[in-house]
Design a protein that fits this description.
25% helix, 5 strands, alpha+beta, five-stranded mixed β-sheet, Alpha-Beta Plaits
Length: 91
């Protein structure tokens, strides 16, 4: 299992971006979260097998029909098993 923290920039708040990526995360079996940051970006934590996580990161560039993503910064994380999320949350 791998973990990636992604910071998504653009028009990604107030446009159903988090709900859209949460639905896709659940479809792909990704664990983690999507949450708004005070600076207008969305932070996404994605944990799972390498191939589904890679596909999910591609989804982050698409988002919802009303969003406009301008950047996705990806950082590799090393999470201990007890730090891994149990599902995918938005908040």
């Amino acid at each position: 299992m791998i973990a990636r923290k992604c910071l998504v920039s653009g028009r990604v708040q107030g446009v159903f971006y988090r709900a859209t990526v949460a639905r896709r995360a659940r479809e792909l079996g990704i664990l983690g979260h999507a949450r708004n940051l005070p600076d207008g970006r969305v932070e996404v934590l994605a944990c799972g097998p390498q191939e589904p996580v890679a596909r999910f990161i591609e989804v982050l560039w698409i988002g919802s029909s009303a969003s406009k993503v301008t950047a996705v910064e990806v950082e590799e994380l090393d999470l201990a098993p007890d730090q891994r999320p149990a599902g995918f949350a938005t908040g």
